[in-house]
From TrEMBL:
<feature type="binding site">
    <location>
        <position position="237"/>
    </location>
    <ligand>
        <name>substrate</name>
    </ligand>
</feature>
<dbReference type="InterPro" id="IPR000319">
    <property type="entry name" value="Asp-semialdehyde_DH_CS"/>
</dbReference>
<keyword id="KW-0560">Oxidoreductase</keyword>
<comment type="pathway">
    <text>Amino-acid biosynthesis; L-methionine biosynthesis via de novo pathway; L-homoserine from L-aspartate: step 2/3.</text>
</comment>
<comment type="similarity">
    <text>Belongs to the aspartate-semialdehyde dehydrogenase family.</text>
</comment>
<comment type="pathway">
    <text>Amino-acid biosynthesis; L-threonine biosynthesis; L-threonine from L-aspartate: step 2/5.</text>
</comment>
<protein>
    <recommendedName>
        <fullName>Aspartate-semialdehyde dehydrogenase</fullName>
        <ecNumber>1.2.1.11</ecNumber>
    </recommendedName>
</protein>
<comment type="function">
    <text>Catalyzes the NADPH-dependent formation of L-aspartate-semialdehyde (L-ASA) by the reductive dephosphorylation of L-aspartyl-4-phosphate.</text>
</comment>
<keyword id="KW-0457">Lysine biosynthesis</keyword>
<dbReference type="InterPro" id="IPR012080">
    <property type="entry name" value="Asp_semialdehyde_DH"/>
</dbReference>
<feature type="binding site">
    <location>
        <position position="158"/>
    </location>
    <ligand>
        <name>substrate</name>
    </ligand>
</feature>
<dbReference type="InterPro" id="IPR012280">
    <property type="entry name" value="Semialdhyde_DH_dimer_dom"/>
</dbReference>
<dbReference type="GO" id="GO:0004073">
    <property type="term" value="F:aspartate-semialdehyde dehydrogenase activity"/>
</dbReference>
<feature type="binding site">
    <location>
        <begin position="161"/>
        <end position="162"/>
    </location>
    <ligand>
        <name>NADP(+)</name>
    </ligand>
</feature>
<keyword id="KW-0791">Threonine biosynthesis</keyword>
<comment type="subunit">
    <text>Homodimer.</text>
</comment>
<dbReference type="Pfam" id="PF01118">
    <property type="entry name" value="Semialdhyde_dh"/>
</dbReference>
Length: 333
């Protein structure tokens, strides 16, 4: 890989694409050029990067000639249609959708956890994991190193921006309608999201779990290299604009100790401890919004299972759960 690659963002006008541009700029990512790609609707739009105005271009199969790294974030359908042709044109594709995550020949990478996996990408595609999975694993991986992870029971509290720009609009519009005494309209979510919580993220599967819930199981196993890991997850949409929170009970091979568990976060990249509940210190979504680090709090011994801890992990899913993680993968190449 060139030391100053030519980089493209596919889905550059979206919630994650915008954040990718911001992360490249903030991290002073060494690049020769940045190409912004989106649908025909956005072609011609101007977006700034490092003080310059860049013009968004329409995504086509010819978009990747001469591009070294393409950060894809325009949904699974676009990734399936354009990802393989970009990869065979010699471009390294870092894909933020769920399209390729479980392909055994495509690495699924969280740079703080399994950075070595980027070296084995025979299809020139590297997948970025699901946002809730990344945030949960940022909290769990240091504990796994200390105690040996066996099983997870988790509930997520997922922000509306996880559904892209339309999710944000739906919450704002419903709040305004309710304040004005008007009926709410449902477009994105199956039930009212304002002043409510919805125990459904993504479609239900035959076993009663949603697709989003099964990502924590399947992607968690692949990233940690733990084929036997057991996971039961309930994903819930909450009326929060940004940052996902996850309540986790994790069972380990070895006996656990709360002070030793807290110590595992000292000097860890990308995750910090914020845990002094008796003084009101624990992370909330507003603490991580727009920030790189995930935060962990409420660590305690679980009262039901042996060798088990409870923890609460919060992270900005647009940033560490998507854009930042993808840019960090690009930095490893
Ligand atoms: N939002 C989040 O927190 C997270 C999102 N993701 C994933 O990231 C991806 C993007 O999500 P998000 O940014 O939220 O979505 P948005 O709806 O905010 O943005 C979608 C982007 O895709 C582009 N796009 C849509 N159709 C086409 C097309 N036919 N050709 C080219 N570009 C197209 C849009 O361009 P245009 O503006 O021209 O329509 C826009 O740039 C999805 O795969 C999502 O699952 C993953 C983790 C977290
Ligand atoms: N489904 C997540 C965001 C997302 O897009 O996930 P994935 O990349 O796994 O499709 C949410 O709604 O919060």
């Amino acid at each position: 890989m060139s030391e100053t690659p030519k980089v493209a963002i596919v889905g550059a006008t979206g919630a994650v694409g915008e954040e990718m541009r911001l992360c490249l700029e903030e991290r002073d990512f060494p690049l020769e050029s940045l190409t912004l790609l989106a649908s025909a609707r956005s072609a011609g739009k101007k977006l700034s990067f490092r003080g310059e105005e860049l013009t968004v271009k329409e995504l086509t199969h010819d978009s990747f000639e001469g591009i070294d790294i393409a950060l894809f974030s325009a949904g699974g359908g676009i990734s399936l249609t354009f990802g393989p042709s970009a990869a065979s044109a010699g471009c390294m594709v870092i894909d933020n959708s769920s399209a390729f995550r479980m392909d055994p020949e495509i690495p699924l990478v969280v740079p703080e956890i399994n950075p070595e996996a980027v070296k084995n990408a025979p299809k020139n595609i590297i997948a970025n994991p699901n946002c809730s999975t990344i945030i949960a694993l940022m909290g769990l991986a240091p504990l796994h190193e200390a105690f040996g992870l066996r099983s997870i029971i988790a509930s997520t509290y997922q922000a509306v921006s996880g559904s892209g720009a339309q999710g944000i609009v739906e919450l704002e519009e419903q709040m305004k309608a309710l304040a004005a005494g008007q009926p709410v309209e449902l477009k994105v979510y199956p039930r009212q999201i304002a002043f409510n919580v919805i125990p459904q993220v993504d479609a239900f599967t035959d076993n009663g779990y949603t697709k989003e819930e099964l990502k924590m199981l399947n992607e968690g196993r692949k990233i940690l290299g733990l084929d036997e890991l057991k996971v039961s997850c309930t994903c819930v949409r909450v009326p929060v604009f940004r940052s996902h929170s996850i309540s986790i009970t994790a069972q380990f091979e070895k006996p656990v100790d709360v002070e030793a568990a807290k110590a595992v976060y000292e000097n860890r990249a990308g995750v910090k401890l914020m845990d002094d509940p008796s003084n009101g210190v624990f992370p909330v979504p507003l603490d991580t919004t727009g920030k790189d680090d995930c935060l962990v709090g409420r660590i305690r011994k679980n009262l039901v299972f042996s060798n088990a801890l409870d923890l609460w992990v919060v992270g900005d899913q647009v940033r560490k759960g998507a854009a930042l993680n993808a840019v960090q993968i690009a930095e490893l190449l």
